[in-house]
């Protein structure tokens, strides 16, 4: 049985989406067994970006790479691989963070797989180093209390949930809609002393609550798992910030443009939210390097616009 029915998915892309879901089902099963299987959070090396690779990062990467070639993916760009791999002679270029939020693997908190799809161009890297607005699909699979998938094909953001009985992804919401105003904001506050002034100002306004310029109380949330954070914001709103700061190597933040920021920006914008680098829309930007970092602010429109005002 296919892992997702073809309804709601453009015909050309269906084999790719089905392969992502089928592999996601296997990854979800491995994650659910946790310490009963092999040690998933064991350090096994370092990737090109200098992040520590855990056993599950590598297992997930191998599984997606194997499944996507026969499904029509020509070029495969992964966080876990230095260069672009040519998998076959398909029509698509797919960028992937096979396992996002890996610091949460061994604490049983939601983690995920993020993907971005372009039409394949002649050149391997050129297929990814192009305007984020040229993505033809983007999404994530979330491995949490529910395994689900958010995906956009450029006409809204759809949400699927995997039925644990059948292991098939079923449509749960045909058009996600992010509210204009938020009650929650998310940022790693441990780095406050390194933030630029406009980030400090935004957070101080939220903290000032009802008595401050925003005139309402906010709650603070930080999961340290981009997929979990995006899922919460798609579901009930909020604001997320991971901008550049003054730490060495963090001038552009931490998140990668090609396989983290661009796909999340497409999902958020297609659900009526807003995604910027603090000021400019992410979808107006072009990745310069395969593993390049990108400052990222996204969520409810009113809040992201306020961040842009403070940025100046
Ligand atoms: P991780 O490195 O654990 O895969 O993708 C990077 C990411 O997780 C995001 O999922 C998460 O939002 C962020 O890093 C957490 O960064 P900090 O540890 O700096 O808070």
UniProtKB/TrEMBL annotation:
Top-level taxon: Bacteria
Cofactor: Mg(2+)
Main location: cytoplasm
GO MF annotations in UniProt: fructose 1,6-bisphosphate 1-phosphatase activity; magnesium ion binding
Provenance organism: Pseudooceanicola nanhaiensis
Cofactor binding note of this UniProt entry: Binds 2 magnesium ions per subunit.
The name this protein goes by in its record: Fructose-1,6-bisphosphatase class 1
Annotated metabolic or biological route of this protein: Carbohydrate biosynthesis; Calvin cycle
Record domain Fructose-1-6-bisphosphatase class I N-terminal: where: 16-172
Assembly description: Homotetramer.
Enzyme class (EC, first level): hydrolase
EC id: 3.1.3.11
Keyword entries, A-Z: Carbohydrate metabolism, Cytoplasm, Hydrolase, Magnesium, Metal-binding
Residues noted as binding Mg(2+) 2 in the record, renumbered to the chain: 97, 100, 260
Subcellular location: Cytoplasm
Residues reported in the UniProt entry to bind substrate: 100-103, 188
GO biological process: fructose 1,6-bisphosphate metabolic process; fructose 6-phosphate metabolic process; fructose metabolic process; gluconeogenesis; sucrose biosynthetic process
Keyword Membrane belongs to the record: no
Gene Ontology annotations for the cellular component aspect, listed alphabetically: cytosol
Similarity remark: Belongs to the FBPase class 1 family.
Domain Fructose-1-6-bisphosphatase class 1 C-terminal: 178-311
Catalysed transformations (reactions): beta-D-fructose 1,6-bisphosphate + H2O = beta-D-fructose 6-phosphate + phosphate
NCBIfam families membership: PRK09293.1-4
Record flagged with keyword Iron: no
Residues binding Mg(2+) 1, per UniProt: 79, 97, 99
């Amino acid at each position: 049985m296919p892992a997702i029915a073809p309804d709601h998915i453009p015909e050309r892309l269906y084999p790719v989406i089905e392969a992502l879901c089928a592999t996601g089902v296997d990854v979800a099963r491995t994650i659910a067994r946790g310490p009963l299987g092999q040690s998933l959070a064991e350090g096994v090396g370092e990737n090109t970006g200098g992040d520590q690779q855990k056993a599950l990062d590598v297992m997930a990467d191998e599984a997606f790479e194997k499944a996507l070639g026969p499904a029509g993916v020509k070029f495969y760009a992964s966080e876990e691989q230095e260069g672009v791999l040519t998998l076959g002679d398909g029509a698509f270029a797919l960028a992937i963070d096979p396992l996002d939020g890996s610091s949460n693997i061994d604490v049983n908190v939601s983690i995920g797989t993020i993907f971005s799809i372009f039409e394949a161009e002649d050149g391997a890297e050129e297929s990814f180093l192009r305007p984020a607005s040229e993505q033809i699909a983007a999404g994530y699979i979330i491995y949490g209390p529910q395994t689900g998938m958010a995906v956009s094909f450029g006409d809204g953001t759809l949400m699927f949930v995997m039925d644990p009985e059948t292991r098939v992804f079923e449509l749960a919401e045909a058009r996600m809609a992010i509210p204009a105003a938020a009650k929650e904001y998310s940022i790693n506050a441990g780095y406050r002393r390194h933030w630029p002034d406009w980030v400090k100002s935004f957070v101080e306004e939220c903290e000032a609550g009802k008595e401050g310029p925003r005139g309402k109380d906010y709650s603070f949330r930080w999961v340290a798992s981009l997929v979990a954070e995006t899922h919460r914001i798609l579901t009930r709103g909020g604001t997320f910030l991971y901008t550049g700061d003054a730490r060495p190597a963090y001038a552009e933040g931490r998140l990668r443009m090609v396989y983290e920021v661009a796909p999340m920006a497409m999902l958020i914008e297609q659900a009526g939210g807003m995604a910027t680098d603090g000021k400019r829309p992410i979808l107006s930007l072009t990745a310069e390097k395969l593993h390049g970092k990108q400052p990222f602010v996204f969520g409810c429109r009113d809040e992201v616009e306020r961040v842009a005002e403070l940025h100046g």
